[in-house]
Amino acid sequence: MKLTVWTYEGPPHVGAMRVATGMKGLHYVLHAPQGDTYADLLFTMIERRDHRPPVSYTTFQARDLGSDTATLFKTACQDAYDRFKPQAIIVGASCTAELIQDDPGGLAATMGLPVPVIPLELPSYQRKENFGADETFFQIVRHLAQPQERTAQITANLLGATGLGFRHRDDIEEVTALLHDLGIGVNVIAPLNATPADIARLPAAHFNVLMYPETGEAAARWLERSHGQPFTKIVPIGVGATRDFIEEVRGLTGVTAKADESRLRLPWYSSSVDSTYLTGKRVFIFGDATHVKAAARIARDEMGFEVAGLGCYNREFARDIRALAKEYGVEPLISDDYLEVERAIEIAQPEMILGTQMERHIGKRLGIPCAVISAPVHVQDFPARYSPQMGWEGANVLFDTLVHPLVMGLEEHLLHMFREDFEFHDDAGPSHHGGKAAPRAPVAEAEVGVTAQEAPDQVRGEAGIHVVWLPAAEKELKKIPFFVRGKARKNTETFASERGVAEISVETLYEAKAHYAR
Amino acid sequence: MTELPRIPASGGCRDTPILKERGQREVFCGLTGIIWLHRKMQDAFFLVVGSRTCAHLLQSAAGVMIFAEPRFGTAILEESDLAGLADAHDELDREVARLLSRRPDIRQLFLVGSCPSEVIKIDLARAAERLSKVHSPHVRVLNYSGSGIETTFTQGEDACLASMVPELATTDARELVLVGALPDVVEDQALGLLEAMGIGQVRCLPARRADAEPAIGPNTVFALTQPFLGDTHAALERRGARHIPAPFPFGDEGTTAWLRAVADEFGVSDEVFESVTAAPRARARKAIAAQAAELNGKSVFFFPDSQLEVPLARFLTRECGMDAIEIGSPFIHKGLVGPDLDLIAPGPVISEGQDVDRQLDRARAAAPDLTVCGLGLANPLEAEGLATKWAIELVFTPVHFYEQAGDLAGLFSRPLRRKAKLKLEAAE
After folding, report:
1. Under an 8 A CB cutoff, do B78 and A49 touch?
2. Domain count of chain A?
3. How high is the ipTM of this complex?
4. Catalytic center residues of A
5. Both A217 and A97 in a single domain?
6. How confident is the model at residue B378, as a pLDDT?
7. Mind listing the pLDDT tens digit for each residue in A239-291?
């Protein structure tokens, strides 16, 4: 048993729903109690889908448990076929139905439906949403893909985009355009917008672009094994990764065409003097592994930030993220415990978070700006405008995304100059944001004085010394603008603790400032 | 003088045969009630013993995460709990101890059963009893089931309140108890009206804090403010309390009839009643009239959701001039909504339960001007050209009593007004 407040991932059958809802001509018959239908609103409200997810729930109730839930399932299955006439059906159980062990796959197989019926085994008490999507897509591909000739033109399949995916809608357009520049066609995009008939055609492509390893890797590996289709390992998010991706595609296909970079603005925007203030901003990165990996590279190499911490919530990719953290010289955080993530961010005191909607809330509470770079999604992550993460336009979008939450360059200087101005004070927050940013102040004030004892291990430092802020230093600290105050506090405490200084005075504060000056 | 609502000459809908449906139900489970109950009871924590699906539901139904650490959580069952490798009760004790040590402000803990915990038969009643002993007197531990196999949406609140009733102190005092979780502002308005009529010592269930809970006894009378409290109603009657039946306090007419029933119980004179209610009543009428202009003559179709459907259909048909085509409700408890049914003119289909695809067929065929439905259906129906009102807002918005009557009508008129307002075609 594990106490959970907020979850990064839903149960695995929601992953299956993301595949089914993304596709066309497929129906999902889900053995599940009444109430599990809440999942429909993820698609109809968060993603604003204009049709119901193609899911029939058996919605059994307590009174059905004593009688015959198996018949209920078969009836639901037959009704779904008769009403929706899908090209293929996937069947499975949600967490509760898994316990009553009706075996939806076995039941459906005996019904003689005239379309392929694909059983799903998704262990609800061990695995989560991304696994559910990955496994469901893999099973659909394994059951439906047909051996066939490759297309005459060099073509690729784009794998992994699903319903309710973080910017998947726009990423597929961007990657399609990128491949088009290289003279490569797209054979099938799946699961998003694909029909079961399209899935059958997957083996006609020359290679696969694995866009989202979280939801497409099992299928990509199977297609490589069974149909000899290699797949790309680089996810083209960011300038460097997109260039590497193009090289990888050239290597796989032998094409020599150059990609047109004329739409790419990030490199110049990042080099222009206006961006100087971005240098060394400390960022904490958290999300799904794929987006975290990409964001770390963009943050360090393309924006000139400093990565102060990173991690992911999907344990399946823990090894990759550990290796990445090592490369960046930080401790990896592999956790799906929201409160643990909050603690880690509080300790790291970053100037900005690159995270999910969950971290946006953490940031709101801690008074740290946050840019959202990864699922889990929120209605805001489905903007009306074209807003990919991948390819050239994705890099442009990310530049804006990462700059927007920050106080802008000149404003930052003014805030430094007029620290205690009655209007231009730090609680006012960045001027280009409507409304007042939730100030850190109330929390910070309550904590001052006890910070040293209460706060994190780092404060105790190697020497294990408890440091205390003297009132004058505390007051001086408050004069430092909010967006650097956390860093100043942390640096000063580390500085003091490393030197065995138990009390922080104004002197200590400025000695630490000089020490860390860059 | 007070005009009490007249039963339609044709006799109302109480005896209209009910269309009972037993197919796929597109409804929330009772866990959803935690979203508002945890805000209402400010010293309570709701611990769901369930699966990742339960946690995900609460998160999704809450829509946005407003609270960094809300007063609810899910103890997620894992493989080892199911395989019997771990004693689920030991695990639960450990999680509860950890939770309570972190949240010393918690005075009431609800262990909330879910579909998986019911199916594997974790005895939460026994757990609550055991944990109550461990953590008393500081924390009282209760349990109820919000599982989808037993409860539909608002029935979760009913189960929660019913679980509290046996624990309430006993009294012989003649007291009025208002039953149902209302937003504080609405509750205060109701209490203000009752006090002005000279009905003192009114208690509320649930109370905002554990120490303000009502006591119950043979002289207790109670009025329900929500139509979905069947089990709580039964539990209170078992304790000897007596129910004051009335239409529910939505709109001018509903509020007046509800207040009148309570006033009659306490012997309030017509003059006093009139002087207390005249002004807010006039305001309510005026506010409703402003919205009703857009609703008048329009048709409405209710999908089952919160059990508020019958009283709301009464409000929309009698006070806003709408025609109800179908009034679908997850469950129709005539003992509670009978007075509202009496006031609805015959005509609409009254349906209980659901077979969602068949009901969608009926809705499409009827092409209502406004469809009241859940979040899973609203956008798809809008895309088909039907204006909708998502029903969950009716539960999350202050809509009871006089001062909210206009807002309640506004919830229904806004989608129609918006549909009329948007001009997205070429001008030609």
Report:
1. no
2. 4
3. 0.94
4. 274
5. no
6. 95
7. 999 999 999 999 999 999 999 999 999 999 999 998 998 999 999 999 999 99
Please check whether residues A246 and A270 belong to one and the same domain. no
- Contact across the interface for B60 and A38, Cβ inside 8 Å: yes
CATH of the domain at A365: 3.40.50.1980
* B25 contact residues in A (CB cutoff 8 A): 34, 37, 59
- Looking at beta carbons, which residues of chain B come within 8 Å of A362? 68
Which amino acid is present at A105?
A: G
Tokens of B88: 């689920």
Tell me which chain A residues have a C-beta less than 8 angstroms from the C-beta of B26. 37, 40
Query: What is the spatial distance between Cα B1 and Cα B9, in angstroms, rounded to a whole number?
Result: 21
The alpha-carbon gap from B101 to the nearest alpha carbon of chain A, in Å, equals 14
Superfamily the domain B30-151 falls into: Nitrogenase molybdenum iron protein domain (3.40.50.1980)
Alpha-carbon distance A14 to nearest alpha carbon in chain B (angstroms): 9
> What would be the CATH architecture of the domain defined by B18-23+287-427?
3-Layer(aba) Sandwich (3.40)
User: Which range marks the domain in which residue A189 is found?
Assistant: 145-253
Question: In this model, does residue A296 exceed pLDDT 90?
Answer: yes
The list of chain B residues with pLDDT below 70 reads 1-3, 63-69, 85, 428
Instruction: Compute the distance between CA of residue B318 and CA of residue B254 in angstroms, rounded to an integer.
Output: 10
Q: Side-chain half-sphere of A388: how many Cα atoms within 13 Å?
A: 25
**CA-based nearest distance A392→chain B, Å:** 32
Label residues A267-293 b or e (16+ Cβ within 10 Å = b).
Answer: eebbeeeebebbeebbbbbbbbbbbbb
Using an 8 Å CB-CB cutoff, list chain B residues near A34: 25, 27, 29, 148-149, 152
- For residue B29, list chain A residues with Cβ-Cβ distance below 8 A: 33-36, 38
Most A CBs within 10 Å, among B29, B64, B65, B352, to test the A interface: B65
- What pLDDT does residue A407 have? 73
The owner of tokens 């990764």 is A241
- Give the number of A-B residue pairs with CB atoms closer than 8 Å: 186
Q: Judge: A35–B379 Cβ closer than 8 Å, yes or no.
A: no
Q: Name the minimum distance, in Å, from the CA of A89 to any CA of chain B.
A: 18
Comparing alpha-carbon positions, the chain A residue that sits nearest to B146 is: A35
CA angle in degrees (0–180, nearest 5) for A218-A223-A226: 120
Beta bridge partners of A119: A91
Specify the CATH number for the domain of residue A517.
1.10.8.550
Name the residue ranges covered by the structural domains of chain B. 18-23+287-427, 30-151, 175-273
Q: Helix count (H) and strand count (E) of chain B?
A: 17, 14
Which one of A224, A253, A282 terminates a domain? Answer: A253
Could you tell me the pTM of the whole model?
Answer: 0.90
Alpha helices in B296-391 (DSSP H): 309-319, 334-343, 356-366, 375-383
Identify the residue among B149, B306, B384 best suited for mutation to test binding to A, counting A beta carbons within 10 A and taking the highest: B149
**CATH fold label, B175-273:** Rossmann fold (3.40.50)
